[in-house]
Amino acid sequence: MTHYVDSEVARLGTVLLHRPGPELARLTPRNNDSLLFDAIPWVGRAQEEHDAFAAALRSRGVEVLYLADLLVETLAVADARAELTDQVLRSRRLGHTLRRRVADHLAYLDPAGLADVLTAGLAHEELRIGADRPGGLVWTLMDRHDFVIDPLPNLLFTRDSSVWIGDRVGVTSLAMPARRRETTLTDAIYRYHPRFVGTEFVYQPRLEHLEGGDVLLLAPGVLAVGVGERTTPAGAERLARQVFAAGLAHTILVVPIAQERATMHLDTICTMVDVDAVLMYANVADQMSAYTVIAGADGDDLRVDGPAPFLRAAADAMDLDQLRVIDTGLDPVTAEREQWDDGNNTLAIAPRLCVGYERNVETNAQLERAGIEVIAIAGSELGSGRGGPRCMSCPLVREKGGAA
Question: What is the distance, to the nearest Å, from the Cα of residue 150 to the centroid of all Cα atoms in its chain?
């Protein structure tokens, strides 16, 4: 199977999603902050909204793959099962006795049951502990509401843990402790699942922090990488070196963004909706700058120019006279509200065709006025983790060359 992505807007062929499941039901007022959710979602409604999102993609001819299904199939491979089990057991929180009990528990599970534990976690009271099988000091001192294995509610946002650049995949290095185990699952899927046999990697989780929401494929050969709360300058530099060495791009724009919850990734303030058009958060558009990075003459050092205004640097790199800019909202207050509600975080299915949350009424109207068709989906519950349609989708196949 050939997987290939070289732009944000070329016709989408295949996408990776994660349908929210029992991991969302693990969120409580005690842990939602540490697990990076702003509210406790209504799980059933979130699933309905996600199903409608997937149905909208399928109605436009997109193949939808689910991470959970791929994980179950991956865990049927003995080496993958052993590796993912070992990674969970390495946690220094467990201690010797509890580690043995967890190992025994996991050994009894079939691939589907193990996949459930790896995604939804293992609660203190779900572990088989008795007089003949004590849990040790660590288990005894745990609160009854604690998790022996933490859940991964942010798996919903498949964009962050991997990104395809050309015919190679970058499995990213997530910055927040609550999310780091996500990439162990994604990495195993790409290495062991039969669909991805022979896949080459352009980034790996052991490298500097880099998240997929900060990587935009502006055009074939041109990437933009946001540097802020999640992606570090070292991560951007490492990606540039890896991409240039593999011949996957000729220019990378490194874009500093505010280190704030509202702008955690570049795609929270800017996404592409046409080959020459971006949807941008108006309150920061004029202040955004970019450093242009190209490979050095000796093939090792990078050449860095700038900073320059982002829109000018992007147009130059994409060989355009200028980029068309569509604002989020019509006034600063509306723009701020709709940016917070992921108004900028659209997923392009093809040039001039995108998916956005229905609640961002003004942004969607702006897009329609600019000739962009919007497939509006509900997101009242899906948005509680701060992510929109682009965050919830990892394209695996788009038509080559950025064309319709």
Answer: 19
Residue 296, sorted as left (phi over 0), alpha (psi -120 to 50) or beta, turns out to be beta
CA distances from 345 to 229, 266, 267, 271, 311 (A): 17, 9, 6, 6, 18
What pTM, to 2 d.p., does this model score?
0.92
Q: Which amino acid is at 214?
A: D
d(CA 211, CA 225): 9
Looking at residue 351, its pLDDT comes to: 96
Torsion 92-184-203-385 (CA) sign:
negative
Cα separation of the two ends of the chain? 21
Is residue 247 within 8 A of residue 222, CB to CB? The reply is no
| pLDDT, averaged across the chain | 89
Question: Per-residue pLDDT tens for 217-227?
Answer: 999 999 999 99
Our CA dihedral for 85, 90, 96, 97, rounded to 10 degrees, sits at -30
| Beta-strand relationship, 63-66 and 12-17 | parallel
Tell me the C-alpha to C-alpha distance, in Å, between residue 1 and each of 89, 198, 327, 398: 33, 10, 38, 13
% of the chain at pLDDT higher than 90: 65
Residues forming the active site: 391
β-bridge pairing 277-280 and 324-327? parallel
Provide the β-strand partners of residue 147: 123
How distant is the alpha carbon of residue 284 from its chain centre? Answer: 23
Are 335 and 325 within 8 A, CB to CB?
Answer: no
